[in-house]
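Folds abound. Consider this:
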Amino acid sequence: MWKGRFKEDTARVVQEFTQSLDLDWRMARHDIYGSIAHVRMLGETGILDKRECEKIEDGLLKVLSEIQSGKFKPEIELEDVHMNIENRLTQLEPLGAKLHTARSRNDQTAVTVRLYLRDRLLNLAESLINLLKAVLALAEKNKLVIVSGYTHLQQAQPISFAHYLLAWFEAFSRDYERLKFALNALNECPLGAGALAGSTLNIDREFTAKLLGFDKATCNSLDTVAQRDYMADFHYFASVFAVHASRLSEDFIIWSTQEFGWLKLPDAFCTGSSMMPQKKNPDVLELVRGKTGQVLGHMIDLLVSLKGLPMTYDRDLQEDKRGLFASLDVIDSVINILTPLILKVEVNEDIALESINGGKGRGFALATDIAEYLVERGVPFRDAHYQVGKLVAFCIENNLKFKDLSLEQWQAHLSSCDEDLLNLISPEASVANRNSYGGTGFKQVELQLGNAKERAAALESEFKELQERMRIKI
């Protein structure tokens, strides 16, 4: 395509080094959609006549059919998906040589990537909504199940397991909002920006934007071909979601060990050992944890590549798709493995309660409840904290659990204590009494669960509107 300027053919080693077919052939359909919109605009504005445009569009549809059937095989000599399609088009229809009128590979590539990424993000948004619904389904089943909450990986206070799951609903809901932001950020049409300065021809950029389901045309032609902010927005969503998925996986891995033992992972999502017959390994969750590093790395890769580039287009930017596609594939696989796994997770409530009441826990997870009991009787919190801390030390020294103590022993260590305290020394009472807004109390969890279901339904409705708004009108 640039032979007029050069006296020598491009060296084979250069062709292999500069080709991007291993990256961009997956975007062939989107490249053709962009080209159809472009040629329709050329006809609408009179730059080409309608007969020419119809023949070019028919040729593009034939190329698309050949690609979908597997008949059309791209050639490395033609460097990328865009030139392969244009070359095949001109073989089928010589008028195809007019397709590139008022267009550069820069804005052509930009619109192709945005169309492809938009499709992938819409699919991820739908999958993320399904993940949210799976979290809610498991929470609904475990509204009254009590487990230990942890800080510093040390037993802290009893909580409803549903409350724990609703914490992930909040996190994944924020991820959805970040994903939606990335979708809206990319939904501007680059066609017409040209190589960097626009076109002298009478093009209609809003026409192509509307056909391709974009909200508007990009505002500045230099920025259009230079910026990759919309990719960074995706990478940020992907990185935060991956970190959330990794932390959830870590919790499940720990709680499913024999040392904790109160969370049961589904057999279908675990593996065994080639040597040790007793093993049940949480490989799926470990892989979720492991893949997170890749996603974080791809975000840094893009930002480091961008930081020293001058305006506007530089060939370094060809590599932006390598990390983009890799992260898209990882996030897609993580969402689609976590969703069915979460639906099959089970809790052994007896073991969970025993870890709070007995064993090494000794019921000390209720220490804050006791301190707050004293506060209600006028004891300053710091004094109450000290008294309960001394009581815990006494129990440890004498190998006692809270439930082993007599009323006299309670009263000997606490400055203000009556028999009604004994009714509060249970995980059930502890959870039930934590009714501050957003807390783990059963009433609060019921309220949170109801609100979360409404939000999930609203997201589904909003998603359908998003799909329709971004639909290609070709």
